[in-house]
Write a structure and sequence with these properties.
heterodimer; A: 166 residues; alpha+beta; 35% strand; B: 103 residues; mainly alpha; two-stranded antiparallel sheet; 2 strands; 12% strand
Chain lengths: 166, 103
């Protein structure tokens, strides 16, 4: 059992490293397709254009907001690792490892983030990984009616976890 | 490659440069002053960095953005003949005023 909540670290250069570690009940190839096939990516993350090659262009348009991330594929090792370096969300590294009949997924986000945004961004990636699990289970997100309450719930948890103890 | 002109055509990016000209600042400070979202500011900063107009300096565990004025030379160079035009227009105005003063 993996902890659904992500961890946070700080790099010497002031960037943050957010990490999520999940066990998924689906084989690596299926998870890989969910990360790289634009039709699948739209089910849990964003409308995607991905040129699947090292240095290839990436564009992610969030359908539950107005954010558009643009960048490049900076690492591509099918079917176990893919990394995007984006303008608004930093480096997004997805790593997959077979785990019995399922997959161990690690998402590592390395980004420059103002402290005021930390909890909301942590909750954002958390809820997208939740959506990935749902999509793999056959329940893609209906973006016009996306479940914001689930993000709010995680946001409250991350907010509380980072509050200084007084 | 995007030219410095294209980069500076965007008003928010000019505001970011104005703010960084006053002082080097972390991204959170720009987010607060510009009343923009973090992704919005990060997007503009990426464009400004790619164009070499800003750079990041590390200070302890802070990342501070500051202006890198070198690419502005391109703008300055382009403006030079217009500045001469402007100066000669002013000279003409001065002559005109001198002449009208005498009447």
């Amino acid at each position: 059992m993996t902890d659904p909540y992500g961890t946070i670290d700080t790099l010497d250069d002031g960037r943050y490293v957010l990490r999520y570690d999940r066990r998924l009940r689906h084989p690596v190839d299926k998870v890989w397709a969910a990360l790289t096939d634009p039709a699948r990516v739209e089910e849990w993350l964003a409308r995607a254009e991905v040129e699947l090659a090292e240095g290839g262009r990436v564009r992610l348009e969030w359908l539950n907001g107005d954010a558009v991330a643009e960048g490049r594929v900076t690492r591509l090792e099918p079917p176990t690792a893919i990394e995007f370096d984006t303008d608004i969300h930093g480096r997004l590294l997805w790593e997959l490892a077979p785990d019995g009949d399922g997959t161990r997924l690690t998402l590592t986000v390395t980004a420059e983030l103002p402290d005021d945004y930390l909890a909301s961004v942590r909750a954002g990636w958390h809820v997208h990984v939740d959506f990935l699990e749902d999509a793999l289970d056959g329940r893609p997100v209906d973006w016009p009616n996306w479940p914001q309450d689930r993000w709010e719930k995680h946001n409250a948890v991350y907010e509380a976890s980072m509050r200084p103890i007084s | 490659m995007t030219s410095t002109f294209d980069v500076l055509a965007e008003p928010t990016r000019r505001r970011i440069l104005d703010l960084l000209r006053e002082d080097e600042r972390p991204v959170g400070d720009l987010v607060g002053r510009l009343e923009l979202s973090q992704p919005g500011v990060s997007k503009h900063l990426k464009v400004l960095r790619d164009a070499g107009l800003v750079e990041v300096r590390r200070e302890a565990q802070r990342r501070l953005y500051r202006v890198r004025p070198e690419p502005l030379a391109e703008i300055d160079e382009w403006l030079a003949p217009y500045r001469r035009l402007w100066a000669s227009t002013l000279d003409a105005l001065e002559r005109h005023l001198d002449e009208t003063e005498d009447r």
